Amino acid sequence: MKIAIMGAMPEEIAPILKRLETYKTIEYAGNKYYEASYKGVDLVVAYSKIGKVFSTLTATTMIEHFGISVMLFSGVAGAISSELKVGDLIVASKLSQHDLDITAFGHPYGYVPEGSVYVEADRKMIEISKAVASEIGKTVKEGIIATGDQFVANEERKNWIGKTFNADALEMEGASVAVVCDALNVPFFILRAISDAADMDASFSFDEFLETSANESAEFIMKMVDKLID
Ligand code: OS5
Asked: In sequence order, what are the residues at sequence separation of 6 or more whose Cβ sits closer than 8 angstroms to the Cβ of residue 185?
C-alpha cells in the first residue's frame, strides 16, 4: 500500500510534513512531491495549488507516476450547512462540480454526457473515519461537497449551491480529485475542516482560520493513516 495525502495549499500539508521525521522531495510537472516512510508504509504528500485543474494534475500524477493506491485529501472548506461551524470536520459522501453548466442542452447542473452529477466516495474509508472519530471522541459530519473554480464569498451563490446540489460544504478541488480517482479505480477520502461560511466575511474568516482548520483536518488524516496501516 502506498498512501497519497494531498492538499491544495501549502498550509494544508504543512502539518502533515511536520509529523514526518524525514522525507525526500521530488520535483515533477511543476509541483513538489514529498516521499516518506511512515510506520513502515510509503506515503506521498503534495499540495496541488488551488482549483480543479491543478488538483486534477496532482491526483493523476500521484496515481500514474508515483503509483499510490489510496488517496486522502486534507484541507479546509466553506460551510453551507448551518450545522457546520469553523473547525468542524466534514467527510464527503459524494462530490459534484457546482460550476459545470451545460443546462442550455437540457442537462442538470454538474452533469456532462457520460459523466454523472455526483461521484461517490469510498464507503469503506468513510466507515473507517467514523471508527476513528469515535475512538478519539471527535465528530465528523458526513455530507455532500460541491466543488468549483470560485472562492465563494456570497450568501446568494452559497444558497444556490446548497439547494441545487443538496451540498453541505464547498471548496475548489474535491470533485476533480474524485473524478480522477473514480476513473482510475483508486479509493479516495476527502476530508475538510471548516474555515468560513462562504458569506461576505468569508475571506476574513478564511485568513483567520486557515492554519487552525488545516491542522484539525491534518490531525484527523494522520489518525486515518494510522488506522489504515493497523
Ligand atoms: O484551495 C482553495 C479552496 N479552499 C477551500 C475553501 C473554499 N473554497 C471556496 N469557497 C470558500 N468560501 C472556501 N473556503 C475554503 C481554500 C482555497 C481558497 S482560495 C485562497 C487563496 C488565498 C491566497 N491568495 N494568495 N495567497 C493566498 C498568497 C500566496 C501568494 C503566492 C503563492 C501562494 C500563496
From this structure: none
User: Can you tell me the distance from the alpha carbon of 51 to that of 58, in angstroms, rounded to the nearest whole number?
Assistant: 11
Total number of domains constituting the chain: 1
Known catalytic residue at 12: yes
For the stretch 63-95, pLDDT in tens is 999 999 999 999 999 999 999 999 999 999 999
- Of 6, 9, 194, the residue with max ligand 1 atoms within 8 A of its CB, to mutate for a pocket test, comes to 9
Q: What is the mean pLDDT of residues 36-45?
A: 97
CATH number at residue 23: 3.40.50.1580
Report the pLDDT averaged over residues 132-157: 98
Nearby residues of 137 by Cβ (< 8 Å), 6 or more positions away:
none
Residue 49 CA: which ligand 1 atom is closest? Answer: 1
pTM of the model: 0.98
- 164: cell is 441545487
In the reported structure, the alpha carbon of residue 207 is separated from the centroid of ligand 1 by a whole-number distance in angstroms of: 9
Is ligand 1 within 6 A of the CB of residue 202?
A: yes
What does the alpha-carbon distance between residue 16 and residue 38 come to, in Å, rounded to a whole number?
11
Integer Cα distance of 208 and 215 in angstroms: 13
Asked whether 182 and 119 are in contact (CB, 8 A), the reply is yes
Q: Answer yes or no: 11 catalytic.
A: no
